[in-house]
Specification:
mainly alpha, two-stranded antiparallel sheet, Multidrug-efflux Transporter Regulator, Chain: A, Domain 2, 6 helices, about 140 residues
Length: about 140
């Protein structure tokens, strides 16, 4: 199938499909005319790429892992346990990112909790109240 039909079947824009090809995630056949020719296997590949992107993996990591993944278009799993260290490393990276976001949220919650209702929605009253605080830059 050609690019337009492939895009419709996968729900992925043509621009993004070309990006996947540039990243080595997708390798469509080329017709003598230069047109890309996609197969049902390519549809499953794009679904696998989308699953791994949804799991928080980057395209470079996906390019490394995809050749060793097996799936039916609905699920995806490593074809061998040798990939588990890479997957666990990615999970640890995501855990660290989550911890960083939770810490940032806690800090924001502290700022919100410390906010006194001064001046309501009046920006001038808010600036005036802020100017009275030590270290204020107004």
């Amino acid at each position: 199938m050609r690019m337009g039909e492939f895009s419709r079947r996968t729900g992925v824009s043509q621009r993004l499909l070309r990006y996947y090809e540039e990243q080595g995630l997708l390798r469509p056949a080329r017709l003598p005319s230069g047109y890309r020719e996609f197969t049902d296997e390519d549809v499953a590949t794009v679904r696998g790429v989308r699953m791994l992107l949804g799991a928080g993996l980057g395209t470079a990591t996906i390019a490394e892992l995809m050749p060793c993944m097996a799936g039916d278009g609905q699920t995806l799993a490593p074809a061998c346990s040798g990939m588990l260290p890479d997957l666990n490393r990615e999970r640890e990276r995501i855990d660290e990112a989550v911890a960083g976001l939770l810490a940032a949220r806690d800090k924001l919650d502290a700022v919100i909790a410390a906010t006194e209702p001064v001046g309501g929605d009046d920006p001038e009253a808010c600036r005036a109240a802020g100017a009275r605080l030590p270290g204020a830059r107004v």
